[in-house]
Design a protein that fits this description.
The protein is an alpha+beta fold. It is 24% helix and 23% strand. Helix 2 crosses helix 3. The longest helix is centred in the middle third of the chain and has 17 residues.
């Protein structure tokens, strides 16, 4: 099983180190919107476990701040985050950089096939009618 990390900046982990991190891929995406989702998805033997929250897993945040993570149990929301949100970030080839063992390299594709995750998600959410809460 491969492990994908999608980060918003630099990552100190060195992917591709035999016996340590050879199954880990690191993708950095910095786009128009600097804030980013904190989503933790574990395949867990075919039973998805998905968490989201404020926790930016850095030492200063874990030791000196209050962070929160919440498990998502709704299967529809899990599918949406996995199949829409995480999928588009893993396909980003416009703003993404891939970390090799020594440096970041652009995740380039053909110019007409470029994917900008934040633009795709902005289009996804603004093209749908707003949810209307009904009041009895």
């Amino acid at each position: 099983m491969e492990i994908d990390l999608i980060v918003r900046g630099v990552c100190c982990l060195k992917p591709g180190v035999p016996g340590v991190s050879e199954r880990i891929r690191v993708r950095s995406v910095v786009g128009r919107f600097l804030e980013h989702s904190r989503v933790y998805w574990f395949a867990n033997g075919g039973r998805d476990d998905l968490y989201f929250g404020s926790a930016d897993l850095m030492e200063r945040n874990l030791n000196r701040r209050v962070e929160a993570v919440c498990r998502i149990r709704d299967e529809g929301i899990i599918r949406h985050i996995r199949d829409v949100v995480l999928d588009v970030y893993l396909r980003d080839s416009d703003r993404a950089y891939l970390l090799t063992c020594s440096r970041y390299q652009p995740a380039l594709s053909e110019p007409d096939a470029r994917v900008n995750a934040q633009q795709e998600l902005l289009a996804w959410y603004t093209s749908r009618p707003a949810a209307v809460d009904s009041v009895d």
